[in-house]
Amino acid sequence: MNELTTLLTALFQANSLISLGVLVACLIFSWALVRLLRGSTPPAGSVWFGDRVYDGVLFPATALVIAYAAKLTLTGTLSPAVFKLALPMLVSLLVIRLTVRVLRASFPNSRSMRVVERSVSWIAWLAVLLWITGVLPLLLSAMEDTRWKVGSAHVSLRDALEALITGALVMMMALWVAGAAERQLLKGSAGGSNSDLSMRKMVSNLVRAFLLFIGLLLTLATVGIDLTALSVLGGAVGVGLGFGMQKIAANYVSGFVILAERSLRIGDMVKVDNFDGRITDIRTRYTVIRALNGREAIVPNEMLITQRVENSSLADPRVLLNSTVQVAYGTDVRALQPLLEFAMAAVPRVITDPAPSVQLHAFAADGMDLNLLFWICDPENGQGNVRSDVNLAVLAVLNERGIEIPYPHRVVQVTPPAQASQGLMS
């Protein structure tokens, strides 16, 4: 409490207003500098700038550096109480902005990350409050006295807390670098080919996994764990994981195999386990397939390796579709064929190479079945709609030529009662 009383007394001194004015000038200068660097529109998904000037990491970092420089410059001239109160708040704001922006960039659709963001904010502001009131140094001293033995080393509660904070910052920086590398790799891939996008996706996944692994090793080293001692433990854990996580490991390996050999690419139309759709994303563990009706299937990558997958876009995007129409007996089929083929070729999505064709398929009980064959090169836009357009074009030709589409005829014989009785008596 003496620390807080001294700080409040210093804040009410006459030259504290001058210090406050200098601090406000530092904040305004920082805001203007960040605004000048970011321009009128910030880069999409930027961690440095954020959606607004004060929403990114660069503003609190710049304000912290300028305010600290002003404090050093004015030491001995003005009261440092204002800066002693402002600098911890800027540090807390920097930690919060860094955590929020990195987590949102790395996990944009994760609800659990919102809980982590709020938890970090509460912890950061609580640490500032404890620091200002002078309680934090006393708390850290008490934590230093709480010790236990881990192997041959003695670890205090303060060491564990500092290692945890340092490890979290290292992992946060690893996520930040991994996200920035992924965005750079995927930049400009929207206008490229599907195979190029798949390769970029594979490289970005490898970069993310590598950086997170390096971050984990640095975190363990920061905590004080000897990495050479992990070799024996890693072997035992590897054996256990090999038996308990076979499927997960197989899915991860299958994901890299798919991306490397490019047998399946983002944008391909596939059929897996009676589910038709377009591949929208290939992750390291699973692949997302979106059907034309909006449903999405999450397919484990191992299934795409071990089972049969029908790919309509692998070597040739052209797909053969068919429809059937029945005409009455007595119709001149040879004269009708070119008319129907011309009508089908006039449908916008039907391609002319290969050209549509009409085949006499069967002689049915009520008429002759004609098989309508036509090709399209954009199956991702749907098949039912183009088949409907072809059927409407064929129907227009039949109506124009007066050709009958037969329907079943049935003859019912009614036997008079007298004849029925005579038949029974005989």
Gist of the model:
The chain has 426 residues and is of the alpha+beta class. Helices cover 58% and strands 13% of the residues.
Characteristic key phrases:
10 strands; 13% strand; five-stranded antiparallel beta sheet; 14 helices; 58% helix; 426 residues; elongated; Alpha-Beta Plaits
Question: Layout of helices and strands, plus pairs?
Answer:
Blueprint lengths: L1 H10 L4 H23 L19 H16 L7 H26 L5 H22 L1 H11 L1 E4 L2 E4 H30 L7 H30 L6 H15 L1 H16 L7 E4 L2 E8 L3 E5 L5 E5 H6 L3 E2 L7 E9 L5 H13 L11 E7 L4 E9 L7 H18 L15 H9 L1
Antiparallel strand pairs: 1-2, 3-4, 3-7, 4-5, 5-6, 8-10, 9-10
**Percent helix:** 55-70%
Question: Whole-Å distance between the termini?
Answer: 125 Å
Number of strands: 10
Walk across the major sheet and give the strand order.
6-5-4-3-7
Structural class: alpha+beta
* pLDDT averaged over residues: 77
> For the CA atoms, what is the radius of gyration?
37 Å
Indicate the overall shape.
elongated
Number of helices: 14
Low-confidence stretches: none
- The run of helices and strands is HHHHHHEEHHHHEEEEHEEHEEHH
Q: Biggest β-sheet, characterized?
A: 5 strands, antiparallel
Question: Beta fraction of the residues?
Answer: 5-15%
Give an overview in words.
This protein has 426 residues and is an alpha+beta fold. It has 14 helices and 10 strands. It has a 5-stranded antiparallel sheet with strand order 6-5-4-3-7. A 3-stranded antiparallel sheet has the order 8-10-9, covered by helices on one side. A two-stranded antiparallel sheet has the order 1-2. The longest helix is centred in the middle third of the chain and has 30 residues. It is elongated.
